[in-house]
Amino acid sequence: MLPERVELKTPEQIAVMRRSGLLLHRVHDMLAEHIRPGITTDQLDTLAHDMIRDEGATPNFLGYQGYPATLCISVNEVIVHGIPDDRPLQEGDIVSIDGGLIVEGWHSDAARTHIVGAPRSSADEDLVRITGEALWAGIAALATAERVGQIGAAIEDHVTDAAGETLSHLEGFGGHGIGSAMHQAPDVMNYRTRSRGPKIRPGMCLAIEPMLIQGPGSWVLEDDDWTVRATGGGRAAHVEHSVAVTEQGLLVLTEGDGGAAELAARGITAAPDPLAAG
Q1: Which SS3 state, helix, strand or coil, does residue 189 take?
Q2: How far apart are CA 213 and CA 136, in angstroms?
Q3: Is 77 among the annotated ligand-binding positions?
Q4: Does 104 show up as a binding residue in the annotation?
Q5: 81 is in an annotated binding site
Q6: How many other C-beta atoms can be found within 10 angstroms of the C-beta atom of residue 198?
Q7: 107 is in an annotated binding site
Q8: Which of 108, 226, 227 is nearest to 176 (CA)?
Q9: Binning pLDDT at 50, 70 and 90, where does residue 194 land?
Q10: Residue 28 is assigned to a ligand binding site
Q11: What are 53-63's pLDDT values in tens digits?
């Protein structure tokens, strides 16, 4: 578990993190346009690496604790931390892409899950949809939460209400603080734990990232010491946003509109975007 010393950011630092997050949002949008049967995860990784470098930013996954790529790309039963390779994607694959970057020393981190072409089943569609909904349930909870642990409770409640026992959480993995380093305190779990977590305060920036598996939540770490693979026969999805807590409310750093539309749908007004014109 991460130590409970939480880095609080100034408004100026959050503005730089917003720049980092917006660039990452654009990288994910670019990758979404290229996902199709036949493309390899290596090719997607190269596209992301080149765009990040061309924009003057730095990939923060590449070289992190020896990680060999710009992105984690997890296909089907791989839940998280899949290493890109030369395998072509196939129709109906579920592909989770997790990436991050650094702008002027400040980090962003975000993940999206895609279905390649037509979905294989309604269960796959439900998995991807519910994982996305769970992310926004957690973000929405942050707007009124007193402690970090309430985020995981909201995610767990949404998954239980939407999926019953058909989906499982990846236990032992979760979100984290983010800022001058990619992984900081506090831990942000996706389900209830005995810890209430630290108090929510303005200046906190959190990466919230539900990871759900069809069927049982059993998993194994592959021999590469990175790839986490489900062992119960189900597929997985993983989504993530980096979110800032400000005096004016929440700003979703890695969403194009700062989270305004999704938060408004839940009765929440997003914080003003520091990069907005006017």
Answers
A1: coil
A2: 18
A3: no
A4: no
A5: yes
A6: 17
A7: no
A8: 108
A9: confident
A10: no
A11: 999 999 999 99
Tens of pLDDT, residues 99-117:
999 999 999 999 999 999 9
Q: How far is CA 191 from the centre of its chain?
A: 15
Q: Is 183 annotated as a binding residue?
A: yes
Token pair for 110: 């975000």
Residue whose tokens read 């309430």: 150
Query: End-to-end alpha-carbon separation of the chain, Å?
Result: 42
We find that the CATH architecture of domain 11-264 is: Alpha-Beta Complex (3.90)
- Tell me the chain's radius of gyration from C-alpha atoms: 17
pLDDT value of residue 195: 85
**Which pLDDT tens digit goes with each residue over 231-251?**
999 999 999 999 999 999 999
Please identify which residue in the block is written with the tokens 């305060």. 201
- Tell me, what amino acid is at 216? P
For the chain, helix (H) and strand (E) counts, in that order, are 5, 15
Closest CA to 204 of 13, 2, 1: 13
Annotated binding residue at 176? yes
